[in-house]
């Protein structure tokens, strides 16, 4: 009866409501909407039931240095960001990482540390030296480096007969003459072009390499430090230092350029960048009696003497005149002052030795050593006075040149020598002790006393 009293409009509205209710009920909208508005406790429960993440978390970075872990030089992450084109060059290379020996080097390091504390003796030992008495004992032969030998140097000390040698693979080896152990390091990547052992501090050894780097081996810190990097990637062909100069290191690089590295300022001095020759400088040597005077030999066929005191005030690239120029037709392999500083010996690629002496080195004597023919590296070094020069011989011996007779007077030979000697050094304080490095990796030490 109540329904009959409603108007047609109201009846239609009720019908629409009923149909909409049936439609919503069929879609279950209310039940799904209720799930979106559960109380906070239910939400917390759902979070606690989630599975743990399986992703790998970001690694926390720790300093290996503070943890006392040595870095691996073969890992590029530890290479310093230098200007070098080779990213595998460490500015500060620990000795323990450069060490390639088969036994511990602790005894070697301690020996050099003791020598650096002022206990080293540097007095010249005189003896009745005669050429005929020089001999080679089997225990005085060793393969100091694994590659082709390029440098040989005695340590300037009476306390021990230590030799350091370099090869064409960047290795340097240390050998105490007469002992079996060799301590081998690899601080460079390629050919060792120079070695300097400081007489006032035996624990610091400079080395240079053809890749344009020079390092200082500091035994006190047990590290190989880079002290010089060629800015234009030029090869370093020679390395030298005056005996009375502890702060400056002289390097020949590129095509005849002289660079001076100053330890006091930790970089190159204002005297660097002098173009002394047109081609590569092969040797730099200082006059023992006047260390300001130096001589350079070059592949351009010239040897020149210089007074480096005159460089002061000159700008980089300035025209620096030579005191004296000795010109030859062929490339010059070496130029060395005699122990007295009064004579000069120059060797050329045609196996000729020229000995200059007299006032202003004007007197020249030529020695054509036929026993040294066809040697790729022909150099002559002075002995312990101005009497004799020593050169390599194709007979696997050492040619002895008399400055008085202006000729080769004898050859030191031994069946124990395996290849042609071509790198020599005379011990500064042991008269009659001569080191000869062969074209292989052998170092032979001849003795007289």
TrEMBL record:
Keyword line: DNA damage, DNA-binding, Repeat, WD repeat
Entry keyword Repeat: yes
UniProt key word DNA-binding: yes
GO MF term list: DNA binding
WD repeat feature ranges: 274-309
Pfam families recorded: WD40
GO cellular component, one term: nucleus
A single BP term in Gene Ontology: regulation of DNA damage checkpoint
InterPro entries in the cross-refs: WD40/YVTN_repeat-like_dom_sf, WD40_repeat_CS, WD40_repeat_dom_sf, WD40_rpt, WD_repeat_DNA-damage-binding
SUPFAM superfamilies: WD40 repeat-like
UniProt family annotation: Belongs to the WD repeat DDB2/WDR76 family.
Protein name (record): WD repeat-containing protein 76
Lineage: Eukaryota, Viridiplantae, Streptophyta, Embryophyta, Tracheophyta
């Amino acid at each position: 009866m109540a329904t009959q009293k409603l108007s047609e409009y109201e009846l239609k509205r009720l019908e629409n409501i009923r149909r909409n209710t049936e439609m919503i009920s069929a879609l279950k909208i209310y039940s799904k909407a209720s799930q979106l508005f559960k109380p906070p406790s239910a939400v917390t429960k759902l979070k606690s039931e989630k599975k743990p993440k399986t992703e790998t978390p970001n690694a926390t970075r720790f300093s290996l240095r503070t943890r006392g872990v040595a870095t691996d030089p073969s890992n590029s992450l530890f290479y310093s960001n230098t200007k070098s084109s080779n990213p595998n060059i460490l500015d500060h290379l620990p000795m323990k990482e450069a060490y390639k020996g088969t036994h511990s080097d602790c005894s070697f390091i301690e020996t050099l540390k003791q020598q650096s504390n002022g206990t080293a003796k540097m007095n010249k030992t005189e003896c009745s030296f005669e050429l005929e008495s020089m001999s080679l004992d089997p225990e005085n032969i060793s393969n100091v480096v694994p590659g082709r030998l390029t440098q040989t140097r005695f340590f300037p000390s009476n306390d021990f007969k230590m030799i350091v040698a370099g090869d064409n693979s960047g290795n340097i080896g240390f050998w105490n003459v007469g002992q079996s152990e060799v301590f081998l390091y690899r601080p460079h990547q390629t050919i060792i072009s120079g070695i300097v052992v400081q007489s006032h501090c035996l624990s610091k050894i400079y080395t240079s390499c053809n890749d344009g780097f020079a390092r200082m081996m500091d035994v006190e810190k047990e590290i190989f430090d880079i002290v010089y990097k060629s800015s234009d990637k030029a090869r370093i062909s020679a390395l030298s230092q005056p005996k009375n100069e502890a702060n400056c290191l002289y390097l020949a690089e590129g095509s005849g350029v002289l660079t001076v590295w100053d330890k006091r300022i930790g970089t190159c001095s204002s005297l660097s960048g002098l173009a002394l020759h047109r081609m590569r400088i092969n040797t730099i040597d200082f006059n023992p009696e006047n260390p300001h005077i130096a001589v350079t030999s070059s592949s351009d066929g010239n040897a020149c003497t210089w007074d480096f005191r005159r460089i002061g005030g000159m700008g980089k690239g300035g025209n620096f005149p030579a005191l004296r120029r000795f010109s030859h037709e062929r490339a010059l392999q070496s130029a060395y002052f005699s122990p007295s500083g009064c004579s000069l010996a120059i060797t050329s690629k045609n196996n000729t030795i020229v000995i200059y002496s007299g006032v202003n080195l004007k007197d020249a004597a030529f020695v054509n050593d036929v026993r040294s023919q066809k040697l790729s590296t022909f150099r002559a070094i002075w002995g312990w006075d101005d009497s004799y020069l020593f050169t390599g011989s194709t007979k696997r011996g050492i040619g002895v040149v008399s400055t008085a007779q202006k000729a080769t007077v004898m050859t030191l030979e031994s069946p124990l020598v395996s290849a042609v000697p071509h790198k020599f050094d005379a011990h500064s304080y042991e008269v009659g002790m001569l080191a000869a490095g062969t074209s292989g990796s052998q170092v032979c030490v001849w003795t007289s006393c």
